[in-house]
Amino acid sequence: MSFAIARSTTATAIGGLFADVLNRQRVKQGTPHRTGASVRRDSLEAGTFEEGFFAVPVKGEADKLTRAAGKLLDEGRRLKRKQRGGEELSVAERAVAAMTAAAVRVYQEFCTLWRVTKGQLYPSYDYLAERTELGRRTVARAIVILEKVGLLIRQRRFARVEAEGAGPRWHQTSNVYRPVLAKALMTFLPRSMRPAPPPVDEIQREADRQEDTQHMLAGLNCRELARATLVSGPLADVVAKLGACIDARSESADMALNR
Predict the structure, then answer these.
(1) SS in 3 state form for 115-175?
(2) pLDDT digits 0-9 by tens, 177-216
(3) 170-179: strand order across its sheet
(4) Is 145 in contact with 98 (CB distance < 8 Å)?
(5) Which of 37, 50, 57, 119 could serve as 33's disulfide partner, Cβ 3.0–4.6 Å?
(6) What pLDDT digit, counting tens, does each position of 210-237 carry?
């Protein structure tokens, strides 16, 4: 009983620490940062998350996503005709119907850069406008469309300003991007472009692996649980120490009850 309470307390403490970290990094759009700098909503500090955000494309993946965007443009035109005929579209269908030729052109450039830079994708709007020969506002609208349809993930960033004396200590820097293909889009693509379903034995192996992992985690104390579920670093060290304190108090409580 006390072990279950201790684990629950650890989970609550971990959640609180993560919330505190994210609240420090994220600020509301349009409101001045406490240092005086203007930082966009949902921005994360540059250099703190990119390792887990960027993904190196496998061979042929960039070309596959580019072709998928073209097919979605065709499907979007069909859905627009369907809508003009009086039929109501679902949320996913409306997103696909919003696809434009400009969005596909911008996505082609994203995928090309994604392959060339091996996943390190953070072009500026001006660069994309120059490469695609589109207006800067058109590029911005295209990125919003690609996000909504499920072809692109965008993350805003801010960076520290190394300066002395009074003044802002943060400034907005380039966004980072990752091309994706949302599962919800598979139904809009030809069958030949959909991934083959995984073999049954692979599905069973994955289910067994998850069950074994849950069984292993259930047998850990609070300190071990923190080490097993958090990436190594200062935060993991702090949470592990917190878990050790909870374990010690739990053991003391158990000893007192057994006397």
Answers:
(1) HHCCCCCCCCHHHHHHHHCCCHHHHHHHHHHHHHHCCEEEEEEEEECCCCCCCCCEEEEEE
(2) 999 999 889 999 988 887 777 788 888 888 889 988 888 8
(3) 44-45, 152-160, 170-179
(4) yes
(5) 37
(6) 988 888 888 888 777 777 776 566 777 7
Residue that is written with structure tokens 């047998």 in the block: 219
Distance CA 244, CA 54 (A): 34
Per the structure block, which two tokens stand in for 204?
Answer: 């069973």
Dihedral, 84, 89, 93, 94 alpha carbons, nearest 10: 70
CA atoms within 13 A on the CB side of 38: 3
Tokens 């909870």, residue located: 246
Neighbours of 91 (CB within 10 A): 8
Retrieve residue 170's tokens: 């943060």
Distance of alpha carbon 238 from alpha carbon 228, whole angstroms:
14
